[in-house]
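Subgroup meeting minutes
Present: P.N., E.W., G.H.
Scribe: E.W.

1. P.N. recapped why we're keeping a running log of single-chain structure predictions: easier to compare across weeks, and new members can see raw inputs and outputs side by side.
2. G.H. added today's entry (275 aa).
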Amino acid sequence: MELYQGIILGIIQGLTEFLPVSSSGHLVLGQIFFGITQSQLVFDISVHMGTLLAILVVYASDIKAMLVSAASFFFRVILFKPVISEFKEDENLQMAGLILIGSIPTAVIGFGLKQFEHVLFTSRILVGCMLILTGTVLWISRKYYFSGNKTTGPGIKKALLIGVCQGIAVIPGISRSGSTIAAGMFLGLDRHKAAKFSFLLSIPAILGAQILSIKDMINSNLNIDPVTIYATITSFITGLIALKILLTLVHSGRFHLFAPYCWLIGALVILSKII
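Output recorded in log:
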């Protein structure tokens, strides 16, 4: 892979990981465009870690608060102190628990779909159809822009359902951020809480997927080259920008404006394969 190709793909990953247009779908299309047919395992892991770092930076205070609450909770458990009241009163601890719960269906579905990755990540028709589906979901979400304190947090049932959507988003063309934020709004969460839960829920999903891939990388004796390093830095910077842009659009009630883009790109991808 040439340096300019790596940087462009890093930009694509950074932008599309958070904008609701499917990063996996765009990476597949980008690699097809550049004629990259060999496995890019190290590259894919690295650019995803770049965008994960962007989430950690933006939500650093929330993550710190959850870790502190979780540590306090387990410390009390070890000392056989009562913890029920603490769990009921500590919102950060509740959020950490819901993220773990939502990650369960994501992991189950992700493992299941991994068996078909050789098909999922090579079909332009599939990517195009799923992009159109993503656009449709985004467009429907415009009717669910609740705001204010109309709802409480996700709850166990909602966390599980949003986790299911995140698992299905493994399919290229289905936006992880788009599907999970929209699912949150469909389930009655206001757009602020839906966006926050979506990105916090993505942390264990992205991290877990990359840890599993790292095992394959080590077995393949693959090394990180300069192209991968530059692409990772690029994905982090562009990811940070894209995440802040998306949060601004979600908070202002303009999340659905990405729908026409998804429809257009999806249609063009399908036509390029048919014609």
